[in-house]
Amino acid sequence: MEKNKLAKIANLVFQQIINLQYSFFHFYIIGFIVIKKILKFLFTVLFILLLVIILKTCTYSSRQISVAAVSPMEISDTVAEKLSGAVQIPTRSFSDRVDTMAFEELKLYLEKTYPIIYSKLEVNYINKFTPIIKWPGKNTDAKPILLIAHLDIVPVEGESLKAWSEDPYGGKIDEKFIWGRGTLDDKVSALGILEAAEILIEEKFIPEKTIYFAFGHDEEVGGRAGAVSASRYFKEKNIKFEYVLDEGSILLEKALPGIAPPVALIGIAEKGYTTLSLTAKLSEGGHSSMPPQETAIGILSAAIHQLETQPFPAKLDGAVREMFDHLGPEMALPNKAIFANTWLFKPLLMNQLGASGSSNAMIRTTTAPTILQAGVKENVLPSTAQARVNFRILPGETVASVRERVEQVIDDARVEVKVAKTDGFSSEPSSVSSTRSPAYQNLEKTIRQIFPEAITTPSLVIAATDARHYHAVAEDIYRFIPLRMTHADLKRIHGIDERIAIEDYKNCIRFYYQLLKNSGQ
To answer: Which of 171, 206, 220, 477 could be 244's S-S partner, Cβ–Cβ 3.0 to 4.6 Å?
Structure first.
């Protein structure tokens, strides 16, 4: 009896094991089928995704225009001597004054050095030292064009003076270079324009459209007496320009990984500029031997830390979007595929751009603490600590929106946020000029005629220029100086050993000569 019961139990257990194995097998079969279908679906999705990437990459065509190069015009070596002479006149800009004697000397020098322009064209001066030159065209109904530059330079003082290889105000000419302040920023542009205009006048060239030149004398300190007043002068005379061209962007060697030719960056917009004052206040200071849990310096430091660790959001639009749309097709794989498919690779791209200071500045409003002030003695706790933080504002944002976000990020009522006085530099971001206008197309054409190997592209100018003051008199404003530079050369602007190769200066003159011919037709 007991044996029968045990046998029945064993049989039942065995049967359950068989059923369980069958269930596991059945589940395995079903699971295998489901996994197979999921893998098939994923494979199909990946195949379609890969196909889209390949198709978009293959159809990501070049935006470079086809233009025949012009034969390089012969230019005398005397142009180097004339630029050198201007460099030897130290027209330095200081925040609180103008070096009057130097500007008077430069004024006389230019009148003597370019007698054809100053005798045959109409010349007026704004605030004594900013010349406005009018070259009348045949068609008085056509909108004129305006080429601008600036004649002032930043000073070279203190320890940096000792680091120069040559006298920054000496204008030395050796076998290859012209040395000194203004050879890159920005006497080179003003004199290049004057050289080109004199050649054309000597050739009896009469432009179809009227051409103006305006050379500010205080760009390095905000342009209030120069460009601001010149723009007001044109506005009062109801003069509207087809376009304005200023400095700002350049021909850059090895601009991005994967691009071998030099890139001609045509600035179609400019970032805004503001400095915010952050002030942390406590009701009292005290003795350093009995510090409280929080001090004014600590509160301010925490606020700055918040701003640095929570940067403004990165954006890929406007001028920067157009730049990558022009440069992307010129890149080799895999970079070309990445830029052709930003809908997929945008997070990767933004991460890479954000890793470099220069590229990070193109995709977001930047935050830069520049001045800290607190305390007068090491054993006294200050009740107030103050910092100045500089912001370069991306188009689409404003000074007001920057201040609002800063207050939100800091989120501390003990830190007061105000817009600081910045000696004329504070400005909203510029509007974005057209890349489809005849003016932009003319710039592209001229660049390709003089620098046929270059890739042209719109770009965003991250520094401040005089151009920002002319939006009241022109819808399209472009920023490009025809100088070929390396990344190392960029450090020479406002830095040590500013210089220009003589041949590069001649190409600068050739560019302005061709641009004036093209624009004046």
So the answer is: 477
Residue 206 carries which side chain, given as an amino acid letter?
A: I
> Is there a single domain that holds both residue 276 and residue 250?
no
Give the residue from 419, 446, 481 where a domain finishes.
419
Contact yes or no for 481/250 (Cβ under 8 A): yes
Tokens representing 435 are 């890349």
Peptide bond into 131 cis (omega under 30): no
Kindly state whether residue 424 falls inside one of the protein's structural domains. Answer: no
- Residues forming beta bridges with residue 393, ordered by sequence position: 272
Q: Are 139 and 100 members of one domain?
A: yes
Q: Could you write out the DSSP letters of every residue in 94-149?
A: ETTEE-HHHHHHHHHHHHHH-HHHHHHSEEEEETTTEEEEEE--S-TTSPPEEEEE
Q: Give the residue numbers marked as catalytic.
A: 152, 219
Residue 87: burial class (beta carbons within 10 Å; 0-12, 13-18, 19+): buried
Over residues 308-320, the pLDDT tens digits come to: 999 999 999 999 9
CATH code, domain with 244:
3.40.630.10
pTM of the model: 0.90
Residues 222-262 pLDDT 10s: 999 999 999 999 999 999 999 999 999 999 999 888 899 99
| Omega before 186 within 30 of 0, i.e. cis | yes
